[in-house]
């Protein structure tokens, strides 16, 4: 019954004079679809809730679903507010008029477009009255049938009204009536579709004009740089629909103290795990968001930067940048893409991580742009204080709930010059996709020597080593106590350990030159570490055990490349080795401190 009343109302509306109708047609635009089939399906669904659903084409391949018409804008606005308050229509619905609407497509068979001009009144001809004979009650005979009236041709369908497009001067005049918010909305729509990359300020300068012209060109329109009313409405409607599909909404996460625009149609809040607030994927979207919030200083920020890169959701390939008070990490492989940003301000570290499937790059690029432009820290609150500094316990807390990526293997190395070049064993760098120093600095192989088993690494950025190895220049004394500084347990412990033993002989068991034989219980992670005497002089580099041969030596028998062999190979590579002039014995704590300063964790990924 409601639908019948609505259709009758439309008929009455169409009977009004054309000028009156043009002034009285106001609609609530509740949705837009990119295809007619989708629009008709949605119109059918909306019609189960509202009797006054009408559909119109918008141009540029879009179809609008509306409620109405309403006699004036005030009544339309009042209904809009009421329906939004009751949650019956999308939050981005708005009032429009028939300037933005073109040909109708719903209800099926109804012509809702303005009717043509009223024809001149014509004299009415009264048809001749036909006399119908009544049935004869006595005879029961039927009267002769009345002659059929002569068939008349159906009146031609009125042609759809011509769409009158504005001239540039008219477009500029209508544009001048826009409010600042409407101008900013246009810039936001142009930015959403990749035509505008400056600030959203509502000022239509050369950059905005160029973006308008580019949008017009992309849509097959004359690139005047001034959008007509219809073009503006089409652009804004498409932008609003695209945002509605992603559910982009400003979210204020009170516990984390972060305000940011999130795709609420794709993610939903899951749980807190300080310093993270997790938003899981929604409806199988494959999208995740993690908000970052913790108190700390620059060392905490840098520690977070290092640790986040060990996560599976931060692939190894991609750009990284770290500034004094912020960092950005982009990661990408065939199945995962992610963007991470964090900044330090007033003793609080706030940030976010967006994770998606690379197949969704186009629309997730728009989501990321919305997140980047809206992100801000609010208040002076952060999640669960406890990461100042980044201790082992806090690191474990940081990784809770996230799968940590581990290197294939880790070995030891040591600094051999002031720029951060590292000497290690060739075994540590063979077949690696990526090599890192201390899990945070990328490095490349300068040389890998099969004859000596040595490899030299150059860090991606210049480092300032706490200590540089000083090599022995004379003969070593067999029988003296030595220590190997190395990451015995690979990347499990955050610092190297010292393993003590004895220098047995300055040659191998078979008389091999250039190596030294040690009596020392070393582990695989120690390989590549410096071998030091009691004065802190490096007498060699620990080599990995030979497990491929047929001879199995006792666990205490290990070998080291001699300092002289190391010095020769470094010189060939263009590095001047530091010669040691040390004598006497260092205090154990001083030896330990110096060894830690020069020893590096070398990881193969």
From TrEMBL:
Domain called SPOR: residue spans: 20-97
Give the signal sequence positions.
1-22
Asked whether the UniProt record includes Signal among its keywords, one would answer: yes
Protein source organism: Gemmobacter nanjingensis
Q: What is this protein called?
A: Peptidoglycan-binding protein
Q: Which UniProt keywords apply?
A: Signal
Q: What Pfam families does the entry give? A: PG_binding_1, SPOR, Trypsin_2
Instruction: Give positions of region: Disordered.
Output: 134-163
């Amino acid at each position: 019954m409601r639908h019948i009343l609505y259709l009758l109302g439309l008929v009455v509306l169409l009977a009004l004079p054309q000028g009156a109708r043009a002034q009285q047609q106001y609609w609530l635009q509740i949705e837009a679809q990119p295809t007619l089939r989708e629009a008709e399906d949605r119109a059918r669904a909306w019609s189960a809730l509202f009797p006054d659903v009408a559909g119109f084409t918008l141009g540029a391949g879009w179809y609008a679903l509306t409620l109405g018409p309403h006699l004036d804008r005030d009544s339309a606005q009042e209904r809009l507010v009421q329906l939004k308050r009751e949650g019956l229509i999308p939050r981005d619905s708005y009032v429009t008029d028939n300037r933005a609407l073109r040909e109708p497509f719903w209800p099926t068979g109804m012509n809702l477009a303005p009717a043509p001009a009223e024809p001149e009144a014509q004299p009415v001809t009264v048809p001749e009255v036909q006399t119908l004979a009544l049935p004869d009650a006595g005879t029961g005979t039927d009267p002769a049938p009345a002659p059929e009236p002569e068939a008349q041709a159906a009146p031609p369908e009125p042609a759809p009204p011509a769409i009158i497009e504005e001239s540039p001067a008219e477009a500029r005049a209508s544009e001048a009536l826009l409010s600042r918010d409407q101008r900013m909305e246009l810039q936001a729509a142009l930015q959403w579709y990749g035509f505008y990359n400056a600030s959203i300020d509502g000022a239509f300068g050369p950059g905005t004009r160029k973006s308008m012209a580019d949008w017009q060109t992309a849509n097959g329109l004359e690139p005047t740089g001034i959008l007509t009313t219809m073009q503006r409405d089409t652009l804004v409607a498409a932008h609003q629909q695209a945002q509605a599909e992603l559910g982009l909404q400003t979210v204020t996460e009170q516990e984390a103290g972060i305000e940011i625009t999130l795709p609420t149609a794709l993610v939903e809040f899951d749980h807190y795990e300080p310093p993270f607030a997790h938003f899981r994927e929604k409806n199988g979207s494959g999208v995740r968001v993690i908000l970052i919030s913790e108190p700390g200083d620059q060392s905490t920020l840098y520690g977070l930067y290092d640790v986040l890169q060990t996560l599976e959701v931060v692939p190894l390939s991609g750009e990284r940048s770290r500034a004094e008070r912020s960092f950005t990490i982009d990661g990408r492989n065939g199945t995962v893409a992610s963007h991470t940003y964090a900044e330090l301000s007033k003793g609080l570290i706030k940030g976010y991580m967006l994770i998606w499937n690379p197949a969704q790059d186009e629309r997730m690029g728009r989501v990321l742009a919305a997140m980047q432009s809206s992100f801000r820290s609010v208040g002076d609150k952060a999640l669960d204080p406890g990461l100042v500094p980044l201790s082992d316990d806090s690191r474990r807390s940081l990784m809770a709930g996230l799968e940590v990526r581990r290197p294939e293997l880790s070995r030891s190395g040591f600094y051999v010059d002031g720029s951060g070049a590292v000497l290690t064993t060739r075994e540590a760098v063979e077949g690696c996709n990526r090599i890192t120093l201390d899990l945070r600095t990328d490095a490349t192989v300068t040389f890998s020597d099969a004859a000596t088993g040595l490899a030299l690494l150059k860090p991606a950025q210049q480092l300032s080593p706490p200590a540089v190895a000083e090599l022995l220049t004379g003969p070593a004394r067999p029988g003296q106590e030595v220590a190997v500084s190395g990451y015995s347990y690979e990347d499990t412990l955050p610092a190297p350990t010292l393993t003590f033993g004895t220098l047995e002989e300055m040659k191998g068991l078979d008389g091999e030159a250039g190596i030294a034989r040690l009596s020392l219980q070393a582990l695989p992670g120690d390989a590549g570490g410096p071998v030091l005497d009691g004065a802190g002089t490096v007498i060699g580099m620990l080599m990995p055990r030979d497990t491929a041969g047929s001879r199995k030596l006792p666990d205490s028998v290990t070998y080291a490349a001699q300092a002289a062999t190391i010095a020769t190979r470094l010189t060939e590579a263009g590095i001047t080795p530091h010669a040691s002039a040390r004598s006497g014995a260092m205090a154990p704590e001083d030896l330990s401190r110096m060894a830690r300063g020069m020893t590096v964790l070398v990881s193969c990924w």
